[in-house]
C-alpha cells in the first residue's frame, strides 16, 4: 500500500540542516505544528496501513522566494528511510526548470514531479513556461502530481488550480500521467470529467474541506456516484493523504469506509500507484 | 519544600496505546533526591492522558474499548474542521474527549525517597491520537 501524497514538512531531521525551512513551512505552506522525529513520519505511514509514501518538495522560488523542502532534502530523506518514494519539484517560472527537473530526477533517483499551481502561482496552460516542464516529465517517464482545488496554504490561489485549465496540457502530452490531488474539491465534477475522458488523468483521495475524511470522501463521491469509480475509473484513483494536513490513518479509514469492492480497494491503495510509479517487481 | 520539574519524552507507536511509565516515574523520583513530599505526573497534551489502574493487558484492552464506546469515532462532532491556527484538519474530537474522560495527571506521595503506590497500581501514559512524539513531566514537591 502506498500513500501517494505526503509533505515531509514536520520531519525534524530536515529542519536541523536548514534554518530557513521553518519560515517556508509556516509562511508559505501554512503549518504551525512542532517538528516531529523522522520515526513519527514513518509510524504515520505504518498506522495508515501503508508500506511507503510519496514525499513531495515544492519549489516556490518565483512566487515566494523559497522552497518548502527542496529536491536535495527529499534525496536526504530517502537516505534516512526506505519508507519514502521521493518526488521532485521545479518552478515553471524559473529559467531552465525543465533541465533542473531532468538533472534532479536522474541525480537523486526521484520518481515523480510535484506541482502546486495555486501556491507556485503559475498558469497550468502556459505553453512557454509550464509545457516544457510537462515535456520533461513525459520524457523522463515520471507521473505529475498536481494540486487542484482548494489550497489551504495561506498564499495559495485556488483560481489557478481549476482542473479544466489542465485540458490543453492533457491534449498536448497524452503520454504524461497526471494525478489530480484532492479530487480537486470543490471542482470534483471537473476533475472526474477529465478522468473519465482521458485515461492518463488520475484522481487522488485527500478531499479536505470541513468534516472528517470519511465524511468528506463520502460527500464528494456520493455526488458522482461511487459505482462510477468501479465502472470507469478503477485504474485511475490512488490513495493519498496530503499529510500533515490530515493524518494518513484517517484518510485510509475514510477510503476503507466507502465499501468499495475488494479488487477496487486494492487498486486504489496499491496497484494503481505501483503502476504509475513503475514499481512493478519491487517491494512496494 | 522544594519543587523540581523533570520533563521526559515518549515516542508512541500507534493510534491508541496504554504505556506503562511506572518504573520510569519511580526512577525519576529517586534521581531527584527528594525524601518526603509528593510527585505530580502530568501530560503536556490534550489528546493523551495519564491514568492509574492495575497493570494487566486485559484491563488495558477493556479501558480502550470503553473509551471507544463512550467517545466513538463516527459521531457528529463540532470539532471536525480545518484549524487555521495549526494549518491542519482538526478531526480528532474523539481523542480529546477520551483524554477528558481519563484526565491529564495523577499524584502520589513520596516517603523516604520512594513513591508510595498500591501494589496493583500502574501509572499509564495513554496515547489517544498517535503515533506522535509526546512530552510529559513529573513535578516533585518535597523536602
From TrEMBL, chain A:
Q: Does the keyword Lyase apply?
A: yes
InterPro entries xrefs: ACMSD, Amidohydro-rel, Metal_Hydrolase
The domain of life is: Bacteria
RNA-binding found in the keyword field: no
Domain spans labelled Amidohydrolase-related: 2-279
Q: Which UniProt keywords apply?
A: Lyase
PANTHER family (alphabetical) = 2-AMINO-3-CARBOXYLMUCONATE-6-SEMIALDEHYDE DECARBOXYLASE
This chain belongs to the protein called Amidohydrolase family protein
Automatic annotation (TrEMBL), chain B:
Family matches, as Pfam families: YjbQ (PF01894)
Which InterPro entries does the entry mention? UPF0047_YjbQ-like, YjbQ-like_sf
The organism's superkingdom is given as Bacteria
Q: Describe the family membership recorded for this protein in Swiss-Prot or TrEMBL.
A: Belongs to the UPF0047 family.
Please give the name of this protein.
Answer: Secondary thiamine-phosphate synthase enzyme YjbQ
